[in-house]
Design a protein that fits this description.
Elements (H helix, E strand, L loop, with lengths): L2 E5 L3 E8 L11 E9 L1 H11 L3 E9 L2 H12 L7 E4 L5 E6 L5 E6 L20 E5 L8 H13 L3 E5 L9 H10 L2 E2 L3 H7 L8 E5 L5 E5 L2 E5 L12 H14 L4 H16 L10 H7 L1
Parallel strand pairs: 1-4, 1-8, 2-6, 4-5, 8-9, 9-10, 10-11
Antiparallel strand pairs: 2-3, 6-7, 11-12, 12-13
Length: about 290
């Protein structure tokens, strides 16, 4: 079975559906609300597993009711908890404001999920050759140790996908440069691209995401564009996570880069067409409906 490790925090997503976000200082109404386990890491892990792989999330959770709910959810859905640790404290949450066209706005209260220690990697990532890293995970006091672990992983032949995240500009610049230099594949959107561009090299693969317009893939042998799979957008939360996981799974399975990117577009489309940041599905069902 194809395995990977995903460095990224686990938290709770609290959804609020609104007709539109009010202007600053104004008021509005919430039409519906619900909660679900979230965080880029679990979104990636679910997609990777849906494709037939086994993803291991690296994250602490608090010893509170939210943390226990996350742990129960992962076990019930067959998600690995090998590198999920518990610490005294609260688990973080994210307020997600979802508009009718699928666009969303976030506000996050961080918790134990932004902590890190080598102790959580109980077996030292034994036999795992592929890793994904979310930019959000480097916004903590242990970011130096995280990058050290990833440098060691890369030096022993590990393949790293780095998804920068919208808050990439707040990552320590030295650590960001070090992580970019050891990453084989990066998946920024247009605004994130400007933050990481100074440290990119011609040997890396960079997938520049442009949302509904698809994107461009830059590789040592040249560039190519890709188109998105057209679906009716319900909720765009987790689309980028699902795309990254689909691409990483394709690479890990030995597919060509074009095939891996196509797979990422398909998994992203499935995620956009459902409510919530991830769902449990089979790729064959997606093909059958098209």
């Amino acid at each position: 079975m194809t395995e990977c490790v995903i460095f990224g925090g686990l938290l709770l997503d609290k959804y609020f559906e609104v007709d539109e976000l009010p202007e600053r200082g104004q008021d509005g109404f919430i039409s519906r609300e619900f909660e679900c386990v979230g965080g880029c890491s679990v979104n990636m892990a679910v997609t990777f597993n849906n494709l037939g792989g086994n993803a291991h999330v690296v994250s602490y959770i608090g010893k509170d009711s939210v943390g226990q709910a996350i742990l129960t959810y992962m076990k019930e859905h067959g998600l690995s908890t090998r590198y999920v640790g518990e610490k005294e404290g609260t688990t973080g949450y994210c307020l997600v404001f979802l508009e009718p066209d699928g666009e969303r706005t976030f506000l996050t209260k961080t918790g134990m999920e932004l902590g890190f220690s080598r102790d959580i990697l109980s077996d030292g990532l034994r036999d795992i050759r592929y890793a994904a890293v979310t930019g959000y995970f480097l916004l903590n006091d242990q970011a130096e140790e995280i990058v050290q672990v990833l440098e060691e992983f890369q030096q022993t032949g590990g393949y790293i996908l780095f998804d920068p995240s919208p808050l990439v500009e707040y990552i320590d610049k030295e650590l960001l440069e070090r992580l970019i230099r050891i990453s084989s594949l990066l998946t920024p959107n247009t605004s994130e691209m400007e933050c990481i561009r100074p440290w990119l090299s011609a040997e890396q693969v960079v997938i520049l995401k442009r949302g509904q317009r698809g994107g461009t893939v830059y590789q040592p042998s040249g560039t190519f564009d890709y188109l998105p799979c057209k679906v009716e957008a319900v909720d765009t939360t987790g689309a980028g996570d699902s795309f990254a996981a689909g691409v990483l799974f394709g690479i890990a399975e030995g597919r060509t880069l074009q095939e891996a990117v196509r797979l990422g577009s398909e998994t992203s489309a499935i995620t956009v067409a459902i409510n919530g940041p991830h769902g449990f599905w089979k790729l064959e069902d997606f093909y059958r409906k098209r």
